[in-house]
């Protein structure tokens, strides 16, 4: 088992600082003691259907369910027979109550513009855009692809899809035209919603150009809707492309929401697995919404007067669950920022927190490490006293970063919730309940009520205290993925066949004597680069699709800032010469195939790759070479030992 999290495991093993919930925080929180947490957890474990049935009463249903769970492993149906609508739960029910004039979204553009959408405003905009989609022929069940910058129209488009029962698939704006096309083709999206561009570090991200590149090879697309953001010149294809504002001006702002089956698909979100082809994670309406809503309330101890700031992009699952669905289902105020944390300078997030009096901040360890590197002077120049809770997500947080976050950002008063979960799990699985759970730097602590994880061996036997093993989940939970879009077999083999009878997370973990979980990183070929999931095979396929490349192997190497960096080993077709120019060409090729987030940090040219006798690339050895470590592992199955020695010599051309 490999654990690639930047070498923090050693320090994690010796970590013994414990931070109990501050008494004044605990006194006001939803779950305010360890005993209360434990009794909730035990109750949920012993009577999951009773527990989840009660929890689901917090959502607004248009038709009550008949049965809480229909479990036909590994296929689950939650709240069977029930009907609801996610946009009604996130918008209408707040717009109809005392919160109608409360800010739902406070948005800030990178250049500095501000926009506030109250729940009432959001209802108008969501309904109007739902009518726009209908006008373009979108009906319940049609997939809508969304490829947008972080602007309010993105939230509006997502909720408009939910309103009419059109599953959305949001593609992160950093993905290339090719990657966007692959996703649209896989789910046969009918409409693409995009923008003329977005701002990132003062530059325009050419979203429409990429969208055009994708649309050209996606015959399923009948229309492209373009929101105006940057105002620069773009090409519009007559008959296919429409400006958002033109269509919206003609659309009614009254759109009754569809009453949807609890299991109606809400969205598909593509994520990297251990093969080259991204997987379409399918989430459905009732269970997903319950998971997102409930965990937002529990883990962030959300109150009516909180101002909540999640820094994730909606292109990733964190943005789906904890910028859109979770906070809005709770009637919260969600702050949304378009651009880079260091634009125009490294104090941008702190300025936002000061200005809007943000009380809850949810960000990623890779960002925290960047803040540390930039220096304390930036956060110290702003008033961060409104903060009361801090969250972390995406990768294991190293104790040094945890302590810095605690001291410099949290002023030693804010509990930190280290939240472990995945695109597949839909919502947070292991995390402190901040009024109840003592926190420890580097540990995600305990499972939330209703979640039953365990650390096991490959054949499913529990390991001992503090022993490493595979992290699995033993009982179904409402926000679990239902399948991989269009591929039930891959769903079964990826998640339910590795360890008998359990959901296989792909992560390694250990559990300490107090019952705290310590996540040790992926055990498969999935990389975690700056909190973004990427598969080694995806990058390999991109490299091999270049005509000069014969073979490629990609591994992760520890990186202080981003957790992991991407290291590629490439063999060239006969007659091709290795050169710095070719290295640049290959880097650019990967960016074109996938996006800048997959750009290899280093590319080494080699005559051959180390393989076992059965032809499998020995990644473990390559990881050692990439990290500059002496190879410690057993090399007796290597087909050609000289290959390894050669790799080391050939370090750089
Ligand atoms: C990793 C992001 C340690 C883990 C929500 C998981 C974490 C993968 C944590 C999912 C954490 C996420 N501590 N590791 N708090 N949170 N991970 O699908 O390896 O983008 O399997 O979902 O990120 O990444 P994904």
TrEMBL record:
List cellular component terms (GO).
cytosol
Instruction: Report residues binding ATP.
Output: 394-396, 418-423, 507, 522, 533
Among Pfam families, the record links this protein to: ACAS_N, AMP-binding, AMP-binding_C
Origin: domain of life: Bacteria
Q: Which cofactor does it need?
A: Mg(2+)
Residues binding Mg(2+) are: 544, 546, 549
The AMP-binding enzyme C-terminal domain sits at 538-616
What's the catalysed reaction?
Answer: acetate + ATP + CoA = acetyl-CoA + AMP + diphosphate
Q: Does the keyword Magnesium apply?
A: yes
Q: What is its EC number?
A: 6.2.1.1
Q: What does the UniProt PTM comment say about this protein? A: Acetylated. Deacetylation by the SIR2-homolog deacetylase activates the enzyme.
Q: What class of enzyme is it?
A: ligase
GO BP terms in the entry: acetyl-CoA biosynthetic process from acetate
Positions annotated to bind CoA:
200-203, 318, 342
- Gene3D superfamilies per the UniProt record, alphabetical: 3.30.300.30, N-terminal domain of ligase-like
Q: Which InterPro entries match?
A: Ac_CoA_lig (IPR011904), ACAS_N (IPR032387), AMP-bd_C (IPR025110), AMP-bd_C_sf (IPR045851), AMP-binding_CS (IPR020845), AMP-dep_synth/lig_dom (IPR000873), ANL_N_sf (IPR042099)
**UniProt key word Ligase:** yes
Question: Could you tell me which residue ranges the Acetyl-coenzyme A synthetase N-terminal domain spans?
Answer: 37-90
Gene Ontology molecular functions: acetate-CoA ligase activity; AMP binding; ATP binding; metal ion binding
- Domain AMP-dependent synthetase/ligase, by residue range, is 94-477
Instruction: Tell me the keywords, alphabetical order.
Output: Acetylation, ATP-binding, Ligase, Magnesium, Metal-binding, Nucleotide-binding
The Swiss-Prot or TrEMBL record describes its family as follows:
Belongs to the ATP-dependent AMP-binding enzyme family.
Read off the PANTHER family from this record: ACETYL-COENZYME A SYNTHETASE, ACETYL-COENZYME A SYNTHETASE 1
Q: What does this protein do?
A: Catalyzes the conversion of acetate into acetyl-CoA (AcCoA), an essential intermediate at the junction of anabolic and catabolic pathways. AcsA undergoes a two-step reaction. In the first half reaction, AcsA combines acetate with ATP to form acetyl-adenylate (AcAMP) intermediate. In the second half reaction, it can then transfer the acetyl group from AcAMP to the sulfhydryl group of CoA, forming the product AcCoA.
Q: What is the designated name of this protein?
A: Acetyl-coenzyme A synthetase
Originating organism: Singulisphaera acidiphila (strain ATCC BAA-1392 / DSM 18658 / VKM B-2454 / MOB10)
- Phylogenetic classification of the source organism: Bacteria, Pseudomonadati, Planctomycetota, Planctomycetia, Isosphaerales
- Source gene? acsA
